[in-house]
Design brief:
The structure is a single chain. By secondary structure, the protein is mainly alpha-helical. The chain has eleven helices and three strands. Helix 2 packs antiparallel against helix 3. The protein is globular and about 65 Å long. The N and C termini lie far apart (50 Å). It holds the Pfam family 7tm_4.
Length: 315
């Protein structure tokens, strides 16, 4: 990280102070326990789903392969954000070093961009399963699944590198108070004492791609799925097809809705307090809800959970 050290030396800022979610003292402890509870549910839910899919061979299908990776991504990017956020509720100054801040920014962006593309890969998987069931296993072979997953993480890495590389080129002067609970792009741009035009351009281009491409993929997939479902004559068949997709639609709506609201609006139209609330959805709430959405609405997962628990209890 030689470039990061050089920028830190050229700037008068060597560390940042994270302002946190709120400055009201009476809310600090209740919010600490609330978000600690959220984090525990996120960790248990996602690691539980990863373990469940790993232990049950009948869940070793393309759909659960992507769900396994979604849970891994949710666990990782929640862990990048939440522990540091919890510190702001119990410490007077939540200090993070310059290198630590850029590292948090990189890994947050890597996992959040990867999530947007894995959701689109899951939509394509549902399209293949419902619209072309006879050739599903050939369409979603293990090689194709691995290729899609490789694409997901490459897009995550490229997007995170683009934003982080632009950020480390900026100079930060006297003001080092980040008006957020994490090192995010927009709050950091506000602190720069050099031009942020290139960074803002990169935000609109990269975020536009990272939200636009998956959203278009998902919309096309579900338009074709809906068309296919409407041609199913049996009510039971339609109901099964809808239930297969409903969990994914809920997760996609929560994630992309809050992300687009935060990044694709001009900062003048979105006060930072509203931005923090919007960020909570895709950084804290979505990683917690995803395992619940996919497990509580999924018969295969519930069946696997019962079998695994019965094995553990009887052994």
């Amino acid at each position: 990280m030689p470039e990061m050290r050089t920028v830190a030396e050229n700037s008068s800022v060597t560390e940042f102070i994270l302002a946190g979610l709120t400055s009201q003292p009476e809310l600090q402890i209740p919010l600490f326990f609330l978000f600690l509870g959220f984090y525990v549910v996120t960790v248990v839910g996602n690691l539980g789903l990863i373990t469940l899919i790993g232990l049950n061979s009948h869940l070793h299908t393309p759909m659960y392969f992507f769900l396994y990776n979604l849970s891994f991504i949710d666990f990782c990017y929640s862990t990048v954000i939440t522990p540091k956020m919890l510190m702001s509720f119990v410490s007077k100054k939540n200090i993070i070093s310059y290198a630590g801040c850029m590292t948090q920014l990189f890994f947050f962006l890597f996992f959040v961009i990867s999530e947007s593309f894995i959701l689109s890969a899951m939509a394509y998987d549902r399209y293949a399963a419902i619209c072309n069931p006879l050739v599903y296993m050939a369409t979603m072979s293990s090689q194709i699944c691995l290729l899609l997953l490789f694409g997901v993480y490459v897009m995550g890495f490229v997007g995170a590198m683009a934003h982080t590389a632009c950020m480390v080129r900026l100079t930060f002067c006297a003001n080092n108070l980040v008006d957020h609970y994490m090192c995010d792009i927009l709050p950091l741009l506000e602190l720069s004492c050099t031009s942020t035009y290139v960074n803002e351009l990169v935000v609109f281009i990269v975020v536009g791609i990272d939200i636009g491409v998956p959203t278009v993929t998902i919309f096309i997939s579900y338009a074709l799925i809906l068309s296919s479902i409407l041609h199913i004559h049996s009510t039971e068949g339609r109901s099964k097809a809808f239930s297969t997709c409903s969990s994914h639609i809920i997760a996609v709506s929560l994630f992309f809705g809050s992300g687009a609201f935060m990044y694709l609006k001009p900062s003048s139209l979105l006060p930072m307090n509203q931005g923090k609330v919007s960020s909570l959805f895709y950084t804290i709430v979505v990683p917690m809800l995803n395992p619940l959405i996919y497990s509580l609405r999924n018969k295969d997962v519930k069946s696997a959970l019962k079998k695994t628990l019965s094995k553990v209890l009887f052994s």
